[in-house]
Amino acid sequence: MMNSIRRASRDSWLAGVLSGFANQWGWSRFWVRVVFMCAMLVEPVSLTLGYLILAVLMPSENQQSHYRHR
């Protein structure tokens, strides 16, 4: 069964998207945020749009999956 990336409900700043990626791959949330902010200096429009889309589409940690393992 594949684990999906979920928005973090705790230790999140905005929507928990970056914390969700950090938790999924075992990275430091601090460094994920630093890299994201540095990338925002280069490409702010695309990254802001991408973040907002992921904030809407990614399920949160608290949501139950609609798919059941059979």
* Main sheet makeup: none
Structural class: mainly alpha
Please mark out the parts with pLDDT under 50 across 5 or more consecutive residues, or reply none: none
N/C terminus separation: 10 Å
Order of helices and strands: HHH
Helix percentage range: 40-55%
| Total of DSSP H or I helical runs spanning 4+ residues | 3
Rg on CA atoms, Å: 13 Å
Shape: globular
Hey, roughly how much beta strand do the residues contain? Answer: under 5%
Average predicted local confidence, pLDDT: 82
**Tally of extended strands?**
0
Q: What is the fold's blueprint, element by element?
A:
Blueprint: H1 17-25, H2 29-42, H3 44-57
Mind explaining what this structure looks like?
The structure is a single chain. Helix content is 53%, strand content 0%. The chain starts with 16 loop residues before the first helix and ends in a 13-residue tail after the last helix. The longest helix has 14 residues. By secondary structure, it is an all-alpha fold. It contains 3 helices and no strands.
Which key phrases capture this entry?
single chain, 70 residues, mainly alpha
Short description:
The chain is mainly alpha-helical. The protein contains three helices and no strands. 53% of the residues lie in helices and 0% in strands.
